Amino acid sequence: MKEIQKFTGFTQATFDFFAGLKENNYKPWFEEHKPVYEHEVLLPLRALVLAMTPVMYSIDSQMDFRPNKTISRIYRDIRFSADKSPYKTNMWIMFQRIVPNWEGFPGFYMEITSDSYQYGMGLYMAKKNIMDEYRAKMEYEPESFRQMTENLVGKHRFVLGGDEYKRPINNSLPDYFQTWFQRKNIYLYKICPIGKELFDEGFAKHLSDEFTLMQPFYNFLTEICV
What we know:
Layout: H1 12-23, H2 27-32, H3 34-59, H4 67-70, E1 91-96, E2 107-112, E3 116-123, H5 128-140, H6 142-155, E4 159-161, H7 175-181, E5 186-193, H8 203-213, H9 215-225
Antiparallel strand pairs: 1-2, 2-3, 3-5, 4-5
Helix pairs in contact: 1-3, 3-8, 5-9
């Protein structure tokens, strides 16, 4: 594989590869197209991680910035799955601290597929005790929480995600907080169609800027996890 170069954007071949893999998810096809995977998918993802590392280091210097740890594997674990397709039809990068259990700490991610990409930050598989701490901190600092989150979902148009409890948890907070309060896990994200921004080196800065906007909420979540 080539030495990692400066991030210059993805190419149409990146997304054509995922489209082809979706229709031909078996080993002979993948092996035939492996050079495309390595040069049009893996190399730009590695270059993107390296381009974003200085900004992500400023957000949290304890994150893992090694590309081999930050980039997902394309091979699926099919040992206990009814779906025996050997390859993922999406890939992602994840910036997160080096922790024993990744589920217990917030992380930033960006994912690409054949026809869309998305990015966000949050606690994706949080334990109950972590979310209990999250709710307690929200109740203790409601106005600062409102200002922080209104800015993200209002002005910057991030979408709030996370499973909600079927039976609401009692609390005395105003209505605004309830959609944030009644979560089993919580994250903010954006889903976008494939656009020209992905084919330009400026995408690294755009994504870094978007992650920087979420830094106050990341800090809020980090404080309940340490």
